[in-house]
């Protein structure tokens, strides 16, 4: 594929007015008739042809105003249909007939059929696999959809918008017609047909309209959709209260399908979900599953305004809808759950996924300026960093002006396809603030590094902060400009109280937000009565790396006294990370590992502190992951040394905290029925954290096996299974538990995915053989994206020692898998390949093996654009 550049954007020559689609569904030969009404845009050359996109289409008919088009007037090329000789000003109708084979569409883009269900996925460029079309997000039209299908196998016929009517056709087939009054781009088109069960409810909007809510799932799974329905109703209510956004059709539908390339899709009025993010009950879903379902149901629903009503002008603007909608779903979850705990989880995720992307060969700006394959830009940078950028606008403007800017955005751009510049302009207009420097967050890739040092002058009672910011070079961007970094901070005094920040010079400050805008800035705080301990980046107000010389005592002061709970966790985490990095160096140097007293005291004190919510205490107890440590070290990484160091620190904490952990594991035994609410989930999480440390110190598997036998919900059961399998992989207890689990859940693929994932994350070089054996297991299915992700994906993304084997076999295995998956499902292959994005930060031998494996992929004879693009960027020097 060729490279597409932002600067080349121009509107289409023809305006699409209406779309009328008729589908005659058949597994092998579906017939699609598309009637498209266009007119030439004013000012466009009368000789300009109409160029439509297409991908793997078979066209059997082409009419202009109902008359067959002469073959001299059109050309069919590999991805385009070009039509010439079209009217100068009058509207005209093009009718295109195409034939599709949904059953053999293994890419899962366009119209496909799996498990007897027809469904579609059109974002980003899937609609062109259904018919020739101006398949780009700035072409908005009103759609009518007629669906004809066999009545027995497809009693259910769904599309976007409101139901118009349907009828029996007398020949074993029936039809249904749908009309969506809201102009939309083709990527939001959806069609579903099949035989599914339904859960129904209603929602009354703030203006008093009744909306029918329907969630479609496989027959028999209806009871497992009730939590999703509850989350949907809460999302609808929250969007009215928090953003003033009301739903705009008579019906809102969600369909759960089991073969899906991603989490879910926000098609207008007809969201399609990976069933993993719909189905839940206590026996089969973990607390993390419940939280994900709540967040993703909300995310897709929120797209109805941020994405659908206001959409993107082009795919470079993807963060316009994704970053903003992630921000909205984060705020929703924070309101539904504990704000501080939610923020900790977000930051952990951001640092473990987005920071490595931003520091490696795949780094790109939140608003990229070029791409080869747009599907490769649905990244954590566009989504999560995009969300952080929106959050910073809210931090800089404050709540009221942020809201004013959002209202203006909805008001000004409803029904349009717009850009990041349009979005930012709304906040400038609402606040009167110049956000030009701030907008660099959209354009400069790389995680900024802020270095801080402080000096206290007791006689003058001043505290002087010297701050420096640098943004590292990233592919295609060597020199960077200084950014506007909103840094929330406080100065803590020895007794834990907070100094008033009344007199400040050298920087703008609004409340506790310090605005860092220069490369170097010296900020003086006056009236500070004693040497303060600065606490920076409260609630992670800016997505940056921060370096400050702070000893463990100062960090401990923050960990115990900060008013911002997130900052407490952050301080504990910083103590832990320092200790783990040092321990890793000691392991590599053959020296003994020592654990920091401040770390052990801090962790145990937080664990035992009943005044803190259990979910927070559980987060405090979770040490930085092995990849967090690798990222902190940055270069020349040895995953085995990191693992060994971390294990030794875990053991030291376990020994020192034994009494506390025993007490917690007794006290927090759940009694009564299961509730998925955040407080109950928090208690389970704290108990399981305590159990993790106890098992860490255990010589044998008895305690973990007992926990497995006693578990009465999936959260506890899968946790105990992981403890057994990871800590005692060769024990009879682990083997038994894995066999029991498999037998009990063999008919529930989503639970079996957990069984694959637990085994894929067993540390150590031996796991690769296990993975290979599991791929021959009858419950594995290489065509189902969830199965492939849970086994192959989890191994590559989440098993540092298993995957990064010193002999390079892990990379070779992955390369072969990628080449095997790519012809069937390029998006899936490309996504899993990004697991190697940090290969350059490995020590030389491993990096050499990784390069070889990447070169093997790059040298393959037939690569998809998806995999080709990733591997090429990954190898570029
Ligand atoms: N917008 C979809 C993602 C589509 C991915 C296409 N490769 C889901 C979401 O972000 O809500
Ligand atoms: Zn989204």
TrEMBL record:
Residues 20-188 form the Aminopeptidase N-like N-terminal domain. GO terms for molecular function: alanyl aminopeptidase activity. This is Aminopeptidase N. It comes from Ensifer adhaerens (Sinorhizobium morelense). Belongs to the peptidase M1 family. Keywords: Aminopeptidase, Hydrolase, Metal-binding, Metalloprotease, Protease, Zinc. InterPro entries: Aminopeptidase_N-like_N, Aminopeptidase_N-like_N_sf, PepN_Ig-like_sf, Peptidase_M1, Peptidase_M1_dom, Peptidase_M1_pepN, Peptidase_M1_pepN_C, Peptidase_M1_pepN_C_sf. Residues 446-547 form the Peptidase M1 alanyl aminopeptidase Ig-like fold domain.
């Amino acid at each position: 594929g060729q490279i597409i550049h932002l600067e080349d954007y121009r509107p289409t020559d023809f305006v699409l007015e209406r779309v009328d689609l008729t589908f005659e569904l058949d597994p092998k030969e579906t017939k699609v008739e598309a009637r498209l009404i266009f007119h030439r845009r004013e000012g466009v050359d009368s000789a300009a042809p109409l160029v439509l996109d297409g991908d793997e289409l078979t066209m059997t008919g082409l009419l202009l105003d109902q008359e067959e088009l002469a073959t001299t007037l059109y050309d069919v090329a590999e991805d385009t249909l070009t039509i010439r000789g079209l009217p100068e000003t009058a509207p005209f109708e093009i009718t295109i007939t195409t034939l599709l084979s949904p059953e053999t569409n293994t890419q899962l883009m366009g119209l496909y059929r799996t498990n007897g269900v027809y469904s579609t996925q059109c974002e980003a460029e899937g609609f062109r696999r259904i018919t020739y079309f101006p398949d780009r997000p700035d072409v908005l039209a009103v759609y009518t959809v007629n669906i004809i299908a066999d009545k027995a196998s497809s009693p259910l016929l769904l599309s976007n918008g409101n139901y118009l009517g349907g009828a029996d056709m007398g020949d074993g087939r029936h039809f249904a017609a749908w009309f969506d009054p809201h102009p939309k781009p083709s990527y939001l088109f959806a069609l579903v047909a099949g035989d599914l069960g339904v859960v129904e409810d209603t929602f009354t909007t703030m203006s008093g309209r009744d909306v029918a809510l329907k969630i479609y799932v496989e027959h028999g799974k209806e009871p497992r959709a009730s939590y999703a329905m509850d989350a949907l109703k809460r999302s609808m209510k929250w969007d009215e209260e928090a953003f003033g956004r009301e739903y705009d059709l008579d019906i809102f539908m969600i369909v759960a399908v089991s073969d899906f390339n991603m989490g879910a899709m926000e098609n207008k009025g007809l969201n399609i979900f990976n069933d993993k993010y719909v189905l839940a009950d206590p026996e089969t879903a973990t607390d993390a599953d419940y939280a994900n379902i709540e967040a993703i149901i909300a995310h897709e629903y929120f797209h109805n305004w941020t994405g659908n009503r206001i959409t993107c002008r082009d795919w470079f603007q993807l963060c316009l809808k994704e970053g903003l909608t992630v921000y909205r779903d984060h705020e929703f979850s924070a309101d539904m759950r504990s704000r501080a705990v939610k923020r900790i989880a977000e930051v952990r995720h951001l640092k473990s996924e987005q920071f490595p992307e931003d520091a490696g060969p795949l780094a790109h700006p939140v608003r990229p300026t070029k791409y080869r394959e747009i599907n490769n830009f649905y990244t954590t940078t566009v989504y999560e960093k995009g969300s952080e950028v929106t959050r910073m606008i809210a931090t800089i403007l404050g709540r009221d002006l942020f809201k004013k800017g959002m209202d203006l955005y909805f008001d000004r751009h409803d029904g349009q396809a717009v850009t990041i510049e349009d979005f930012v302009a709304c906040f400038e207009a609402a606040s009167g603030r110049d956000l030009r420097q701030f907008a660099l967050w959209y354009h400069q890739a790389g995680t900024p590094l802020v270095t801080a040092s402080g000096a206290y002058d007791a006689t003058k009672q001043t505290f002087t902060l010297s701050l420096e910011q640098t943004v590292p070079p990233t592919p295609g961007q060597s020199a960077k400009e200084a950014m506007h970094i909103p840094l929330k901070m406080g100065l803590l005094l020895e007794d834990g109280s907070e100094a008033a920040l009344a007199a400040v010079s050298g920087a703008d400050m609004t409340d506790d937000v310090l605005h860092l805008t220069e490369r170097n800035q010296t900020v003086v705080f006056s009236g500070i009565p004693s040497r303060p301990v600065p606490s920076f980046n409260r609630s992670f107000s800016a997505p940056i790396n921060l370096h400050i010389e702070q000893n463990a005592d100062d960090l401990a002061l923050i960990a115990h006294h900060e008013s911002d709970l997130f900052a407490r966790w952050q301080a504990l985490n910083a103590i832990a990370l320092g200790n783990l990095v040092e321990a890793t160096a000691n392991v590599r140097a053959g020296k003994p590992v020592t654990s920091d007293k401040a770390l052990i005291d801090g962790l145990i004190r937080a664990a035992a502190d009943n005044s803190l919510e259990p979910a927070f205490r559980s987060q405090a107890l979770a040490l930085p992951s092995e990849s967090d440590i690798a990222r902190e070290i940055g270069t020349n990484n040895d995953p085995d040394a990191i693992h060994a160091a971390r294990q030794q620190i875990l053991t030291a904490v376990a020994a020192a905290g034994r009494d506390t952990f025993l007490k917690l594991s007794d006290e927090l035994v759940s009694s009564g029925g299961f509730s998925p609410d955040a407080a109950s989930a928090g208690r389970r999480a704290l108990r399981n954290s305590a159990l993790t440390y106890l098992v860490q110190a255990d010589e044998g598997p008895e305690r973990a096996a007992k926990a497995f036998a006693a578990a009465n919900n999936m959260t506890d059961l899968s946790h105990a299974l992981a403890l057994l399998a990871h800590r005692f992989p060769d024990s009879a207890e682990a083997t038994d538990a894995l066999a029991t689990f498999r037998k009990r859940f063999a008919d529930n693929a989503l639970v079996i995915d957990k069984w694959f994932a637990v085994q894929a994350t067993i540390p150590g070089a031996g796991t690769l053989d296990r993975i290979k054996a599991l791929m021959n297991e009858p419950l594995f299915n290489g065509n189902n994206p969830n199965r492939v992700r849970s086994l192959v994906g989890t191994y590559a993304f989440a098993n540092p020692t298993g995957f990064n084997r010193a002999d390079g076999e892990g990379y070779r295995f992955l390369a072969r898998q990628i080449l095997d998956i790519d012809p069937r499902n390029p998006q899936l292959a490309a996504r899993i390949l990004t697991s190697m994005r940090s290969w350059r930060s490995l020590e030389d031998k491993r990096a050499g093996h990784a390069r070889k494996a990447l070169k093997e992929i790059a040298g393959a004879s037939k690569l998809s654009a998806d995999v080709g693009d990733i591997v090429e960027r990954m190898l570029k020097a």
